[in-house]
Design goal:
- The protein is mostly beta strands.
- The protein is 0% helix and 51% strand.
- It contains no helices and 27 strands.
- A four-stranded antiparallel sheet has the order 3-4-5-6, with no helix packed on it. A four-stranded antiparallel sheet has the order 7-8-9-10, with no helix packed on it.
- Strand 7 and strand 8 form a beta hairpin.
- It is globular and about 55 Å long.
C-alpha cells in the first residue's frame, strides 16, 4: 500500500508492506481515520491513518474471517451506515458475512451465498429494514436480511432461515461486480445502481417484499463495470419521490477506462443514464477510480480524479475541462 501526496507535487509519503495482495480498502464513515483492508489470505486488516505523521499508516488489528488453510480471498468490504463497528465482507467461495470489529467476531455468516466468487457487498440505505446486497460471478444479485436486535448491537439472521430474501440470476448477463444504493427509499422499493461484466450499468428497484428486482434503465459502457462511486458535483440533487433529480457517478469500466455518468429521475418517474465524460488513457484494466473536490468547488471541473489500472500498474491524475478530460 502506498500513501501519496499531491500537494503541490506528486510524491510518495509511505510504502506500507502487507504480506498478501490487497483486494479492497474502505475508510470508515464513522471514524474517518480508520480503514479496513481486504487481503488475499482471508484476513481483514484494520489500520489507522494519521496524515500529520511521517508514516501515516499504522496497523491496529487483524481479523481472520476465512480459515488460513482454505485459500479463500476476502474480495470486498462495506462499513454499516448505522452500526459503526459492523463491517460486511465477501469471500472468493461465495460466502457473505459481517464482522464486529469491536468484538473481533463474525456475527453473521451465510456460506456460499453465491455459487462462485462474491465480488461485491453493499448495505441497504433502509433504516427500518437493513439488508445486505451482494453480487457474484454467478450473475446473481442477492438481498440478505440482516438487522440489529437490541441496542447492544446483537445481530440476527431472518428467523425463517431464508436469509436471501431476493436472488436473481436473469437480469445480468455476466457476473455482478458493483452495487451502489442511491439512498432513495420509496414505498415501492429501494433504488440501486449495479455494474456487471456484461458491460452494462443498470438502475434497479428492489421491492421490500420477496420479488424479482425491476430494471428501470440501463446503458452499455463498452467495458465491464467494476466499480461505481457517487460524485457530488454541480447538478447533484437529492432524488425526491416526485420532483425528480440527478446524481453523478464515476464508473471504473475495466478495459474501457473511466466514465462519468449522470443518472436522471424525471418528474414522470422515468430514469435515464447519460455519459458526460470519459477517460481512456489507461492501457490495461481500470479497476478503481475516485475523486476529490476542491474546498470551494461545486462543479465537476473542480474535482481532481485519480484512476488506476492493473497490468500496466498505472496511476493517472486528471481533471475535466468543459466536460472533457
Amino acid at each position: 500500500m502506498i500513501v501519496w501526496s499531491f500537494d503541490p507535487y506528486r510524491r510518495i509519503i509511505q510504502t506500507f508492506s502487507v504480506p498478501s495482495a490487497v483486494l479492497d480498502l474502505r475508510f470508515s464513515p464513522h471514524i474517518p481515520d480508520t480503514l479496513a483492508v481486504a487481503t488475499s489470505t482471508g484476513a481483514v486488516l484494520l489500520l489507522s491513518f494519521q496524515p500529520e505523521n511521517a508514516s501515516p499508516l499504522v496497523q491496529t488489528n487483524s481479523f481472520e474471517v476465512a480459515t488460513a488453510c482454505s485459500g479463500f480471498l476476502v474480495l470486498s468490504l462495506a462499513w454499516a451506515p448505522l452500526s459503526p463497528s459492523f463491517l460486511a465482507f465477501t469471500l472468493s467461495d461465495g460466502t457473505v458475512g459481517v464482522l464486529d470489529v469491536d468484538q473481533g467476531t463474525v456475527i453473521f455468516e451465510m456460506s456460499q451465498a453465491h455459487s462462485l466468487e462474491a465480488w461485491v457487498v453493499a448495505w441497504s440505505a433502509r433504516e427500518m429494514a437493513p439488508a445486505l446486497y451482494t453480487g457474484g460471478d454467478d450473475s446473481a444479485i442477492c438481498c440478505h436480511r440482516f438487522w440489529v436486535q437490541t441496542r447492544r448491537d446483537q445481530a440476527s439472521q431472518d428467523p425463517s432461515g431464508n436469509c436471501a430474501v431476493v436472488r436473481d440470476r436473469k437480469i445480468h448477463g455476466a457476473g455482478v461486480t458493483a452495487i451502489l444504493p442511491l439512498g432513495v427509499d420509496r414505498s415501492d422499493g429501494e433504488i440501486l445502481l449495479t455494474g456487471s461484466y456484461d458491460e452494462h450499468i443498470r438502475v434497479m428497484r428492489v421491492s421490500p417484499t420477496p420479488s424479482r428486482p425491476e430494471v428501470l434503465a440501463e446503458k452499455r459502457l463498452d467495458g465491464g463495470v467494476w466499480q461505481l462511486r457517487h460524485l457530488r458535483g454541480e447538478g447533484d440533487l437529492v432524488l425526491a419521490n416526485q420532483d425528480g433529480g440527478c446524481v453523478t457517478i464515476l464508473a471504473s469500466c475495466m478495459h474501457a477506462g473511466c466514465r462519468i455518468l449522470e443518472i436522471h429521475l424525471s418528474a414522470d418517474d422515468s430514469w435515464t443514464i447519460e455519459t458526460v465524460g470519459a477517460f481512456e488513457a489507461h492501457e490495461s484494466m481500470n479497476y478503481a477510480s475516485d475523486a476529490q473536490t476542491e474546498p470551494s468547488g461545486k462543479k465537476l471541473e473542480d474535482m481532481t480524479f485519480i484512476s488506476t489500472s492493473f497490468y500496466d500498474k498505472k496511476l493517472c491524475v486528471w481533471r475535466l475541462q468543459d466536460n472533457e478530460p
